[in-house]
CHAT domain-containing protein (Glycomyces artemisiae), 328 residues
Amino acid sequence: LTDRHREAGLATALAASLIPYQLAVEMNALLEQGLRPHVRIQPSLSTAQVPWEALRVDEGERFVTNADVSVLPPATVRNAPERRRTAWNPDGPVVAVLDPKIPGAGRDLGSVLGDVPDDAPLVTALGERRTPAGRPARRDDLDRDVLEPLLADAARFLYVGHVTTSKHGLDARLHLSCGPATTGRAAVVNGHRPLTAADLLLGHRPGPAAPWRMPNRVALIACESGGEVRFAEPVGLVAAAVHTGASYVTATRWTLPTDEGLRHFAPGATASTTVLPEAILAVNTAHDADDPVATLNAWQRDKAARWEAAGRLEDSPAIWAAFATAFA
């Protein structure tokens, strides 16, 4: 996905294989009327990591060029009778967990952002709505017992860090600053207890089920945070967020490269190459908008046009096509 010509061939082949002819005809008819369709995708196991927004439907045009694209959660999730729905409060607090320190972490769970100064664009954009107050990133005090009550009263949740998957979606793991003294459904690993999708759905404390309450909008910017669709029972972190209150959940389809990783391994990268902060800021902006799907798609559309025009590494679909928003 970092070679423009090879990526174009792949995206063209995927479009030819995956976009039904009748859908293409209907979309063209809408476009001729000046209407922009919103296409809802419900991925299967075999299409879990397809970057639908990036499919090349014509010379220089991607699927997202002429349509808005979102993920449709399974009916068993979005229509569950016990599903909570948190109202949208555009002025409410944003719980921001940015690159938290993980107890006992090795290099595989190390920093994804590096230094984040107080005047970084993301920190400035969050402003006084950011909670908890204090140091914006690399904190060691944000565990599940701190996070749960904050989310119950928040408008948004912005998480940037690490997610790992296991043998089933309910064991998808969000990594916070949770030490061994915390309670939950995952075992302690190297002095750290991960927070699982099951913890969100059922509660992380012993005793009767006590589901968390998620805000209206949730962004999980981490490696394959939306990877639950690879499982036969697609109930992971995204489904858990939808079930417990969220209407919009932005997650990733695959492992996100960090800036440090790109600088070391990507052809054409330099010591100043940076991609992740821009993507995080784009997701943050989208989640403050009236229509998060359309706003994030607009950013992806701009990145696609820049990639088609110049093929810069910073505009590669490896980053912008990784993001998908589930809307329920």
Q: What stands out?
A: Residues 40 and 183 are 37 Å apart (CA to CA). The chain is about 30% helix and 15% strand. The chain has two domains: 4-75, 84-256.
